[in-house]
Structures are given as C-alpha cells and as structure tokens.
Amino acid sequence: MLTPAQIRNSLAALGYSYSRTQPNLIGIRTALNVPNVFNDLLVAVFTQPAQPKGLNLSDRQLFLNAFGYVGKNGLPLKVDGLAGTNTDYAQAAYEASVGTERLKAWPMTTDPGAYYLEHPLAGGCAVLKPGQYKGAYILGFHQSKPDHPALVQHGGPVTIYRDNDRDNLAEETSSQENGYFGINIHRSQKEGATPVIANWSAGCQVFQRRDHHAQLLALCEQYRATSGNKFTYTLLRERELIRA
To answer: What is the DSSP secondary structure assignment for residue 209, as one 8-state letter?
Structure first.
C-alpha cells in the first residue's frame, strides 16, 4: 500500500519538489502496458490543514467531505447541518489526523485510449512524458464545457511523446514536443465506472469514475486561493517508486 513517505522519498530521489502547503498530485503509470485499461493511479498527498474557525455545522460537513472523511456508514456526509453519528465519526477522524500527512488514491489512465493510438491526430498521438510540471494545472473546464470541470493545462507547458505507429500501445518514442496541448486531468463518462478508455483520452489523464474525479476537484478547491489556482502535477513510472 502506498504511503506519504514513499511518495515523498520517491520525489526526492528524482530531484522533484514536495510541497508541505499544497496537495502533491502524482500520476503513477503502471509497468503493465495493457491497452485501453484504466490501470494507473492518481495520488494526492497533503498535510491535513486545520478547519477554519467559526464554521457552522453545514460548512464543517463540506470541509470534511472535501478532505475525504466519511461517516461511520462509509459514505460522504450529508450536508444538512444536522448533528449525528456520521458527522461525529468524520469529525473524530479529522481531529486524529489534523497536521499529519495523508494520501488519497484513485484509478485513472495516464495513457491515451486505443482509438487515438490507432487513429492519431496530426504528428502522432500524445503520450505525456513522466516528469514534474510545476504550476501547469488550474481548476477550470475541460474543452471549456461548463458541465465538465477539470484540472486544465493552462498554467505551464508539458512534454509529450508523439506515438505515430498506429498500434494500440502507448509508447515512449524519440519524437518529443514541449508546449500547451490541452493535456487535462478530467473524468470519463458521467455515471458509473467507464469500462474502457476508448476515445476518452487523446493524451489526457482521465479518471475512470466521475465521483472519484469530483473528490480530487473538491480537494483542490480547498487550495484554490492559497495556490493562486496553480497546481503541480508529477507523473512517475511505477518503477520509479521507492519501495517502502
């Protein structure tokens, strides 16, 4: 099981920065190169901040949900302003972890789907190169669609491989480009778990489930003001993880 220390040490070994004040957003690309499968991870590691003082109960429930605390029933809290067992349970979990490093992880893909690998856009299908992209992402909307909130690549350039051999495997090639390509971090279908990547990614980092992606966005929203709405994304190969 991944731990905050493992992520922190892995970044340090590669010479990457690690933030104590903002969420560290880490993509982990599996060594198992299977086409069209959501077999990668998005990991968020952060030091749990304290609740702002003076929150009413509804705002406290919103805060607890944003940081991934759940009720005794294992579900996010109902934001109803009513005290109860589930809110008490989540609050107790928060109080036990405030000031400590925490880790949340969700399934996603860091590779494009088979459709765009087999039918690449001009120059070849984009495959994000592992690396650290400081401040490259902001809270916004994928393809400017108001019903598709996402982390969008507006804050800085990224580097991509161009895969143009038209097979269904994403590969690190000798052809590389650095710039703005709209390599966003977004959801797939609106309901349930998307079974295959297909045409959901032409190079973007895509979540298998909308509710998981919403959890990431809710977490980032807590840091919008203090980060200036700029978030760093680091993509690691699985083999670059230091074993615990």
So the answer is: B
The two most distant CA atoms of the chain are separated, in Å, by 58
Q: Whole-structure pTM over 0.90, yes or no?
A: yes
CA gap 200, 146 in Å, rounded: 17
- The residue to which tokens 């797939």 are assigned: 188
179 bridge partner residues: 158
Is residue 194 within 8 A of residue 188, CB to CB? The reply is yes
14 vs 101: CA distance, rounded Å: 20
| C-alpha–C-alpha distance, residues 117 and 12, integer Å | 33
CA distances (Å), origin 54, targets 50, 51, 100, 127: 12, 9, 22, 46
Per residue in 7-57, pLDDT (tens digit) is 999 999 999 999 999 999 999 999 998 999 999 999 999 999 999 999 999
CA distance 35 to 202: 13
Please name every residue paired with 193 in a beta bridge, in sequence order, or none if there are none: 209
Compute the distance between CA of residue 70 and CA of residue 68 in angstroms, rounded to an integer: 6
8 A C-beta contact, residue 71 and residue 93:
no
- List Cα–Cα distances, 137 to 3, 106, 109, 141, in angstroms: 24, 18, 17, 11
Return the structure tokens found at 57.
């109960």
Q: Which amino acid is at 56?
A: N
